[in-house]
Here is the input.
Amino acid sequence: MKGSKYLPIIPVYIGYLVLFLIARGMPGMWQLMAMLVFYCAVGQAFNIFFGMTGYVNFGYVAFLALGVYGMALAIHYFHQFSWLGLGIVIIGLLLAMVMAGLLSLVVGAVALRLGGAYFAIATIGVNEGFRYLIEGAKIWGGSEGIIFSKQMTEAFGREMANRLSTLWADISVLLIAAVAALITLYFIKGKIGYALMALREDEGAAKVMGINVTKYKLIAFVTSALLAGLIGAMAWGLKLTYVFPPEVFDISYTVEAIVIVMLGGAGTLLGPVVGGLLYGLAKYWLTVILPGFQLLIFAPIIIVIVVAFPEGVVGVLKRRVKGTALEPFIL
Amino acid sequence: MIWNQLAGNLTQGLILGGVYGMATMGLSLIFGVLRVVNVGHGAFVMVGAFVAFWLFTALGLTPIAAIPAALVVGMALGFLFFYSVMRRLVGAPELTSLLATFAMGIILEEVVKLIFGTEYRGYNWDVGRVDLSVTVLPWAKIYAFLGSVAIAVLLYLWFNKTRAGTAVRSVVEDSEGARVCGVNVGWIYALSFAIGIGLTVASGVLLTMFIPVGINPYMGGPYTLKAFVIAVLGGLASPYGAFFGGLIFGLIENGSYTLFALLPGAEPFALTRFLSFAILLLILLLKPTGLLGAKE
Amino acid sequence: MVSVFLILGLISLGGMVYAGAPAKVIIGHPACLSGKYAKAGEQALGGIKACVKWVNEVYGGVKIGGKKVPLEYKYYDCESKKEVVTSLIERLITVDKVNVVFAPYSSGLTLSGAPVAEKYGMLYMDHGGASDRIFQQGFKYIVQTIGPGTRYHVGTLDMIHKVDPKAKRVALAYEDSEFARMVMRGAEEHAKKLGFKIVFKRTYPKGVTDLTPLLSDLKAAKPDFILGGGHFEDGQLFNRQMADLDINVKALSLIAAATLPAFYEALGNLAEGVMGPSHWEYGVKYSPEVARKEGLKWIGPTQDEFVKLFKEALGKDIMPDYHAAEAGAQVLAYVLAVEEANSIDPTKVRAALNTLKFMSFYGGWDVNETGKQVGHSMVDMQWQGGKRVIVWPPEAATGKLYYPMPTFAEKAKGKVAVPK
Here is the structure.
């Protein structure tokens, strides 16, 4: 059955729908949902590359950062043309994708030829290097960043600007997460998934078999980056209305992405969703009941996962549902 | 006049580079033997800084005395982490050990925060300074440099003249072969890890001889990044490469500052950092095994 | 018949007024208890708790609708992270039903929470975001208690201009961050106005580990005095490396770092004579008498009472610094405004804050229409003999300025900056 290929997307979409309904229905849940969806979206975008290839891109947050800059620059330069209306937001998204995409092509071309640890180090280099370039050459506002709240008000009117920041930005992130899930599924079940799985097992053998390993790695890498750019433009740009380089180039976001994906199950479809929800909720409750101790609790948990459950929650789940009716739904 | 400033900066850079290099030797050793990248590197440097701080302010011991103390503390920590966590990860993909070391770094930071608080600490060990015409060097910095060199030399001797050191080298060459020859590979892993961590913690003491203020639980971050650049510069698996890589890094970091400052409207510090990462990428592109790297 | 209606009318009117008095007033705060702003966050927490306690136990509560109502304080840990800030603020507003939100520390985080506060029409009080840009964005509900960045070094320049008109060469060396750049901008403008010559103007990145290259270049410019700084660690580094390079100037003023006790602890004698502008230092002479003299309302604990309440609130024997004081003053401002408006409705309280002018242990308080703080003046303090002495402005001074600063060689021999 051709349709059954897409069955696994159902649990994901059900999850997102439930989240959305709870957020709209219960008072005060919207921002929490926004935070959870952010984590799920980042997880899914990150998973497309990391989950499928096993390579860690420690500079991942740079793509999110470029996404914000794309949106910020669009609003900054076009806000006086208020006849463009919401077209400015579209320009921002396009700019975000172009910038993140360009960086990923450049980085990918260079770093993807390296293996394992070198790749990780090279990507840290990119992240930090880019940030210092912005601050050092004082481009795009340098270290002062850009605050574009007022410009949003001028471009869209106060009401709309506020709605964009507190409602539509978050809905967009949810949509991006949904799209990312679909792309992930498509990759996993398609040629790319096959090639990357072969690569993960044994890169050398895959090459010998004639699989164009670099091409597929690059496709996954760039896709992951494009999605990150979109997320950054919406969740950080439109929602928070400002960008400060040290905040957006913060390596801890990359680390969170890694934790989310590993917790949920790297390389799985449902993994990042589960991981994002678990991580976001855990973080939220910890700040409420035990403020100040989050890191001290999370760090050992990372170690436990890494040592004892490297396949993550969904990985374990997949094993459990093997042979049951649920199997085609859990990927 | 510019030449004076340049010369002064280069001198300072060389001295600081020695400390950086020594700090990175531990990282390279651990990678060379265990193929593990210690992403929590900076946190261990921080521990060393606190050892120096505490010994000076609570017990009145000079930093020179703190060096062996830090080595011992570091090795103890290293053994602890190895036997509790790292041992189980020996065969695992690289990512898992990356995450484990990262998490260890965080745990260290939080524990130190619980003990010492988030205040920025410092101590004042004044032993005078030397006035070279191009710059002024406090004796403490010079001692730090000499200490780094001394430790590097000791490490060299240990590797080449002792049985344990030779065993480590054999494991790096060929762990299966070494096992067949009767080397207790598991013990060598533990020892190398412990020594690597010990070196890193000791470097924290030397660092405070250079910069005795601003000591706080979260100070390690920038040093982790610098260490990566230096390690790659010198060859990720080579401890001596790391030392020389550090010297080069220090020279570039400080020397380029004067040159960048000549550019109007630029922010020289950020540009020197950009330069160091650009170099990192270039080396990875052209010669990933590093400028002085050994066979990979 | 008419009298019945009249009586019913009066009763319902009374009921409405009575219904208008809430059971309690709640302050909400996504505080920075961990992460990079943990230190400032902890101080703010102590300051707020101290003043809330004072309001409840000494002041008797907030007076609304003829009743005295208790003040409550609900806070969470935002981990110094912007995405956590937004979700916590919403929780505070919708679940905990707070009546005002205190912004988290730092300009960036204050900004990140502003849209959410605006959406709910919630009063948003800023005690830790000094960037002027926040108030140029057109937010309607934000009010500032901390002084804006551009004013930090203005008083210092006035002081040096008065004390040593011949010292014309000034070097500016600030951290490259939002807040410090504001200070630098204000300093540069004011310096030019007073006729100073700026011989060196540079920034250094946040988290710098070695300032030697910058300081070497600065030394070559031969300034008479230096203005600079950023946050905590770079201030210590600056002073220390000046000593290492034997750079001697007549005066050195560093923002943020120099005013904190940890500065002297870390540097010892090397910090003698170093100055720093501050919103508040223990020892300022603000008191009910001073308030009366200036024709201002006075509210709040005295300085010593505040210190005592602060230590109790945190359960630690540490002194409050200006983060604590400004957060505490914010509580007082809010209470006064609520009483003035006789309501907890954010729009009414915001309007009341516009016209509010008062003095507390923290100093003066007055905001302009955009919410920016204009009534609070900075003081300059100097380390003299291991103690912090307020040397400027004359109205707040507790001692004389020691000028010029001893050289590092003299300091190494134990010289202290205590005027005779």
In short: Chain C touches chain B at residues 36, 38-39, 42, 176, 202-205, 207-210, 212-214, 216-217, 220, 232-234, 236-237, 239-241, 244-246, 257, 262, 265-270, 412 (CB under 8 Å). The domain at 151-278+378-412 of chain C is CATH 3.40.50.2300 (Rossmann fold). Residues 1-6, 11-19 of chain C have pLDDT under 50 and may be disordered.
